Fold this sequence. Notes:
Structural class of chain C: alpha/beta
Mean pLDDT of chain C: 76
Strand order of the largest sheet of chain A: 1-2-3
Order of helices and strands of chain A: HEEEHHHHHEEHHHHHHHHEEEHHHH
Largest interface: A-B, 40 and 39 residues
Distance between the termini of chain C: 17 Å
Largest sheet of chain C: 4 strands, parallel
Strand content of chain A: 5-15%
Oligomer: heterotrimer
Radius of gyration of chain A: 26 Å
Strand order of the largest sheet of chain C: 1-2-3-4
Number of strands of chain A: 8
Amino acid sequence: MSPTENPPLSAYRQREQxxxxxxxxxxxxxxxxxxxxxxxTLNFGPHHPATHGVLRLLVTLQGxxxxxxxxxxxxxxxxxxxxxxxxxxxxVIPVIERMDYLSYYFNAMAYCGAVETLLEVDVPARxxxxxxIHLELNRIASHLIWLGTAALDLGxxxxxxxxxxxxxxxxxxxxxxxxxxxxxxxxxxxxxxxxIPAGFDRMLRKFxxxxxxxxxxxxxxxxxxxxxxxxxxxxxxxxxxxxLGLGVTGPLLRAAGNPWDLRKADPYSSYEDFDFKIPxxxxxDNYDRFAVRLAEIYESVKIxxxxxxxxxxxPHITEDRKxxxxxxxxxxxxxxxxxxxxxxxxxxxxxPPGEAYxxxxxxxxxxxxxxxxxxxxxxxxxxxxxxxFVNLQALSHMVKGSYIADMIATVAMLDPILGxxxx
Amino acid sequence: MPDATGLxxxxxxxxxxxxxxxxxxxxxxxxxxxxxxxSVLQTLRGRGYTFLASLHGVDHYPEEPRLGVVYELxxxxxxxxxAVKLRVTPATPEVDSVVAEWPTADHQEREVYDMxxxxxxxxxxxxxxxxxxxxxxxxxxxxxxxxxxxxxxxRDEAKWLEHRE
Amino acid sequence: xxxxxxxxGIAVDPSTLRVGGLNAHQLxxxxxxxxxxxxxxxEGEALEAYVQDRILTTTLDSAVAWxxxxxxxxxxxxxxxxxxxQFQTAGPRMDIARFGFEAFRxxxxxxxxxxxxxxxxxxxxxxxxRLYDQMLEPKWAISxxxxxxxxxxxxxxxxxxxxxxxxxDVHVPGCPPRPEALMHGVLKLRKLVQDxxxxxxxxxxxxxxxxxxP
Lengths: 423, 165, 214
């Protein structure tokens, strides 16, 4: 028979066509419009492939619609702030870096900034530019993991591997400058611990040439993926006013239309020298959050390029020997250098009594460090105001009334890092 | 940060609620009376500080009153920060919760309760947030021990083997 | 609760395995090994049968062990910073799929290897124990990173070393361990499962009796 004729229907197809989807005659209790429907409380336990880290969500469901979400946290509480009280100021840096474990340079920056404020120590220009380079590289790395895991949650599995490939390049750069891939202790009070080696410039430029093209690829894959678009558009909407009331900052706030970015509003560490834009969304849904973070990758690349081009000569750490270790070649010739080195390594520097609160713009929002000192060589209180901890409160407001799948997408776009939430 | 004179003007506006002002390294702190924290924050909101950036606790041990709560406020239009501080004793740890006007205080007050033991009146759901629900003690107080495990070295093997039996 | 240190039952007494192998030599040469329960003098047919018996059993066991060791299904379980390096191990550069371990299962019922990546807080310990109990035998555990192997950087009230509540087969040190280090740990576990545990440096430096086994 020719292809245009309809072939005779098989028995199965005939049976299929004989079934009519009529209205259900006796609907079970709890159908649409029934106000006494049973609510089911489900536990998205701490171990769940789609909660980023050990986040536990108690979800109250009506069918598939989320009526209430209660996040329960504390499953990776490490007592970082308590541990930090026990250590000399420079020894706190490795401990405090492990808090928000994707943006380790930012943790160190906030803490070092707070201690530098208390000490009234100036960071030399080269140190500031190097800090900016590493901070923005860390921002890109954090956004890459966010993108990979978020796409993984939405079902686009291959993006995860692509993002990890790019992150390997960034970790190679970190390894080049400081010796470690993560938690590098590169930022010290007064600057950075070491100058960048020869070859870092070249490798970084190679990375900068490659990165925008890769970000284009990710955008192209996800923006033409109908499933991702349908899951992200118009889901998890919350307006900027509610977000401000909830204390939310960072890409979440910018996606809702408020262009608040501490790098522009209250520049620190010579961010005012760089020319970059702040991506701002319009609707405040999950798609805007995704687009804002993706656009931030391009802006970070721009910042790094400007910083690299304009990298000033000079010391990479403050010359104040009471705060920063002297360079090793001086130890052979200068007695004072030896004494300073000894004092700094054994006891550490003493910080005048007072309190400082140093806010910076981390990939998730306003990350700030509160340090209280009493004149000794150990801090009395170190508190990190972590953005994810505060942003998590917005989750229940964002997902009330939407489906579970939208809740998963919202958690992915919220970018919570449990290390920062639980500290 | 408001400069020192701006800080004094703010404190005057708060009247008798403000106990002390501290201006150190360009950071303005107002120490207020714990009973009036809600009205203080409302007044400051009226003056433009509409964003509560952080709510955290400090332990001033051994000075009394030792439990402090710090409220970091931010004025986004003028990029101005001011900190409000209150101090309570462990014997009278009650403070009014500000969740009604500042929804961001929800989890943060729970954390201060968990770590320091400051009880926030009228908080919708005051229970431990970071430690297990049935934990006893407030870990971040200065007199709470850091804790931890002794490091098990092989040379001490005989000692901890006999502990096991 | 009682924790079984040897769920497979393969290496009931590590000394007899080697001794078993040696014993065949000894048997063939007619010697006797003290303290063993093997027949000392076998001749001819009995000896042949005895040796054939051993060879077949060992071959089946080792075939099963080989299959198990080359198809670990790790549990997708990341706690903190080590999880980031665990991702990188599964990433394109240090590809864990080369060895066949890329099937990270979400459900503990389907997994046989739990890589504890990150710091274990006291709130999380019972949860992990429950997950470990839900895994089916045979199962192995790798403690990745300093925090779960010992207390790591943070020796304080909030953390528990994983040894306190579950048996761990391989500890991988590092903070966080590089993907190469994690891979080394996984491959070491693989050798362990293949019934060929490397004593490592203890062999090289003749420090055979210094293990921390009770």
